[in-house]
Each structure stands twice: as C-alpha cells, then as structure tokens.
Amino acid sequence: MGCCLSIQIKADESPVHHSGGGNDRAQSERLNLRSEGEILQSSNLKNFSYSDLNQATRNFRPDSVLGEGGFGCVYKGWIDEHTLAPAKPRSGMVIAVKRLNHEGFQGHKEWVTEINYLGQLRHPNLVNLIGYCIEDEHRLLVYEFMPRGSLENHLFRRSSYVEPLSWNLRMKIVLGAAKGLAFLHSPKIKVIYRDYKPSNILLDSDFDAKLSDFGLAKDGPCDDQGYVSTRVMGTQGYAAPEYVATGHLTPKNDIYSFGVVLLEVLTGRRVLDENRAVKERDLIKWAMPYLRKEKVSRIMDTRIQGQYSSRSAKTIGNLVIQCLSVDPRFRPNMVEVVSTLEQLQDCKPKGGDLYPAVPRDLYPVNTEVKQSFNPQNQGPKNRRRSNIANEICKGGIVISPDTTSSIPPVLS
Asked: Which residues are annotated as a binding site for ATP?
C-alpha cells in the first residue's frame, strides 16, 4: 500500500461525492463502505484464527518473509486446499499472509477497506483474498500465493538470479493490469484503485498480472462528470498532479498512474531515482521530450533492444503521452487503453522492422562529434562549445520545453 502524502487537502478521510449533473445510479449497485461488522459478516472469506496462521507460517519465521510494505510483513505459509486448515511446509496450498504492523503507515481502516473490496470483487486480474484474522490486536490477511513476485522486482532488481523481462512479457503484464483497472472502472463497479504502482502488480507462474493492495481504494463518483473529495493518499511519483493539488479523485487519476508505470516498463527505470544523474532523476521530465519527438528508442530499456518493432514502441510511447496528459480530459479511459494494448498483441513484428540491438554509445552522431571537436587543440570558448555539442547529441541537454507536470517530493 502507498503512504499518505504530506500535503493533505482534507482532514477527513470519508469521501464526499460531487455530481456533475448526471443521474445517480442505484446505491445497491455500488460497493459502498459499510460498517466494519457488516463488511466482515457479508464477505465470503474464511475467518482464520491467529493460532492457525501462526502454525501455517511456522511461527512467522524470518525465513518465511516474502516482502515488506507500509502495512507490514508478508509471510509464506501452507494450508489444506479443501479444509483451509494449517498444513505442513511444502504440502497443501501455498498462501501469502500479510500481518499488520501497528507502527506502520497503514492501519486498521485500510485493513477493513481491503476486505470490503477484495471480499466482494472477483476478476482474473485481481489477486484472490482467501480470508482474514481479527483476534485481539492481531490483524492479518490471507491471499493466494503469487510465485513470480511483483513487477517491481523484475523491472528494477539487478541480479544474476532475476532474468530481465522480455518485451512480450512486459506487454502481457501491462495488458493484464490494464484489464484489472478497466474492471474496477466499469459502470457496475466504479472503484478508483488509487495505488497503482509496480510493487502492487503481482505475477503468477505464467506472468499473468493481478492487482493487489486495496487499502486505499475508494468508490468513484456516481457519474462521469463528478469527483470524490478525500485527503490525498498514494505513492510519490504515481499520483496525478491535479489530485495532489485539489484532492479531487476521479478514474483519470488511475490512468495517470498507469501511464507512469507504463513508462517505467518501457525504460526499466524508476519514476524517481536519486541515484541517477540530476537531469534523469525525474523519469517523466527526462523521457517526455524524447516521446514527443518520436525518439522512443532513445529511452527504451537496453536489455530488450532488438525484441520490439518500431511501430509497437511508438504506439506505446504515444499511449504514455496520452495517459500523462496534464489535462485529465485528454487521458483515455481504461477500455481504450485495453483496446490499444490488445491490438499490439495481435501485431507480429517483421524482421526488418525491429530496432537493432546497438549500444547507445555507438550511435554514429556521437562519434562524428567527437572526431570533429578536439578540446585539446581549442581555446576555452571552443572547448565549451564542443562539450555542449556532445551533450546535445547524447541527449543530455533537452532543448524543447517540458510541459508535463510531475509531483514534487511531498512524502512525509
């Protein structure tokens, strides 16, 4: 789950729905937040005892930890597939048990919210919530186990044990995640996810994507023109700029987040990375000038060069531009996003249409500049011109202005 941004527009977390003038749908069709008792009683989930989950995870041993987030640690465990009783290690069904950290960013309210949504929603691209535990001070959630982990690990972890995702797998993952968001935004559901990011996109054994962590989800507005007023929550870099500025929540906020993650998938870079050169720390500001000039090959992850067609890369680049539009009205809806990605799946690249796997430092233009300018044989002014020319050719200096907004560092 994401953590709360320090700029809070509303002190009250309860959403206020503002209608744009359309007809309100029957409230019975919505997933309205109800009381805690109603949520727990109406959910089709198993109510586990703390003792059972303690046994299933081998007393929450450190070597059973799968990961850790704002909610707390996630442990690997085993239960019987039919009775859901604790099972011996490496027998029965593998599960992931999320245990609430009382000192973490998220708390009991997010725990209930997750049960409210995942206890009712079922879709191939949403993670399956099996049950929960509420006993004394203990708050736990039990999910299906996702053996491939998160998209974040595959994109950003540089290790000999993690093979880089191929272009085809990346497109399969983003399509699956897009279908999950499209389901949430559908007229009968109308849920705003509010925390779309690589760490919340989990992968099964076949690299099918499933959205997880619904602690920040909210019911959307009743019509297409309205919005929900709530305090700003999410993860720095992924929240839409207009949402951070006003606290007005709409499905278009999720689409901005989708565009950010899609850009991360193309580049293999984090949206914010302090370890990079100053001009490349903000991924959106660095990449958008190249995308607008249709020079998408200059920002693509070098680990997938030669695997995609120029047409496919440009199509995805244009989709990123649309999703990251400063004006939310110009962003596509998720049905349109899914349609674009599905068309790419059907297009098979021709051999001559593939970008060659050539290292970036071997672009001919760079070599010509280095040969034309020899700083050792020039005065100070000419040496400076030489350096500027080289920087421009390498993409280090962006000439065109960048009008795409990004969110300032406002995490608490």
From this structure: 98
The pair of structure tokens assigned to 37 is 């008792």
The amino acid at residue 202 is L
Name residues of the chain where pLDDT drops below 50.
1-14, 21-29, 33, 105, 352, 358-375, 377, 381, 384-412
DSSP symbol at 103: T
**Backbone torsions φ then ψ of 270, nearest 5 degrees:** -75, 150
Per-residue pLDDT reduced to its tens digit, 24-62: 443 334 555 456 776 776 668 999 999 999 999 999 999
The C-alpha atoms of residue 80 and residue 82 are separated, in whole angstroms, by 6
Using alpha carbons, select from 233, 235, 204, 200 the residue that is nearest to residue 214.
200
Write down the catalytic residue from 52, 195, 219, 282: 195
For the chain, report the end-to-end CA distance as a whole number of angstroms: 15
DSSP label of 411: B
Which residues partner with 354 through β-bridges?
Answer: 309
What's at 253, amino acid-wise? Answer: N
Which single residue is written with the structure tokens 């430092």?
361
Phi, psi of 243 (to 5 degrees): -70, -45
User: What are the residue boundaries of the structural domains of the chain, listed by start?
Assistant: 35-144, 149-353
Helix (H, G, I), strand (E, B) or coil at 96: strand
How far apart CA 271 and CA 241 sit, in angstroms, is 14
The pTM of the full predicted model, rounded to 2 decimals, is: 0.78
Is residue 195 annotated as part of the catalytic site, yes or no?
yes
What torsion do the CA atoms of 211, 212, 216, 218 make, to the nearest 10 degrees? 50
What class is the 35-144 domain?
alpha beta
Extract the annotated binding site: 98
CA 182 to CA 411: how far, in whole Å?
A: 28
CATH number of the domain located at residue range(s) 149-353 in this protein: 1.10.510.10
